[in-house]
Amino acid sequence: MYSALNKQKHKALVLLQLSGKQVGIIGLGSIGMEVAKRLESFGCIISYNSKHKKTTVSYPFCSSVVELATTCDVLVLCCELNEQTKHIINREVILALGKGGFIVNIGRGGLIDEKELVKCLMEGEIGGAGLDVFENEPRVPQELFEMNNVVLSPHAAALTAESFMNMCELAGGNLEAFFSNKPLITPVISISKTIPGKCLSNCLKRKEMNKTLFGVGEEEKEVRTSLTARRNEARRKEKDEDGCFPLLVKLRQMSEEENKTLREENPKGEREQQRKT
């Protein structure tokens, strides 16, 4: 764009400022709350649609996505994908958002009827879209690449060194809590019975495990702490001098002891292995 402007081959850009925009968030869970917090810092006016009205926030609640779209400049999708939310953004919602509206999807591609979105973008029925996920990943409709009012990213926002370290710490904290018979940092708190096959079976097993060990059952109280806060809580847990969780240290020690035993039992094999390397 800079090169095109220098060569005077780029049309004048008319940009929009974020401050003051009405932003509707679909799915006000832990991720949705983090999005809302950041948008508030830019002076955006937040409203939301979710499975249930949140008693802990003051944002206006809209009982339907169409109602939310009619009041917003931007829709941000942060909800899970299931049978109820598949194609939750359809032509009716897009038309309700209007010609100056924008859709940002950081949830799952199937939340949007992608064919209708492409059609509405081509017809000028919506202002633009920012898409991090797609309905048939990794395939992306070719038309989207040719639109100046669409921003695409490859569903790779988590691929940073910091996020991988956070994942390891969170997994370690959950393992430590599990083997200490303590509540998990990130327990399974809700299950959609529409999840198909083996995935549902695994989820139900985890749900039953949580109920047995930690009393998390049908009442399924809402966890109001964000993932970030829970991750930070895990970080504050006692660590050893190497900065590792005690449970992981134990597992590492067990592995080292087992390897030592194997070497003692088979010293010849070890020497052969050393020669090969």
TrEMBL record:
Signal peptide stretch: none
Keyword Amino-acid biosynthesis: no
Keywords, in A-Z order: NAD, NADP, Oxidoreductase
InterPro entries referenced in this protein's UniProt entry, alphabetically: D-isomer_2-hydroxyacid_DH, D-isomer_DH_NAD-bd, NAD(P)-bd_dom_sf
Alphabetized GO MF terms: glyoxylate reductase (NADPH) activity; hydroxypyruvate reductase [NAD(P)H] activity; NAD binding
Pfam families per the UniProt record, alphabetical: 2-Hacid_dh_C
EC number: 1.1.1.79
Record-given protein name: glyoxylate reductase (NADP(+))
Species this protein is from: Phaseolus angularis
Lineage: Eukaryota, Viridiplantae, Streptophyta, Embryophyta, Tracheophyta
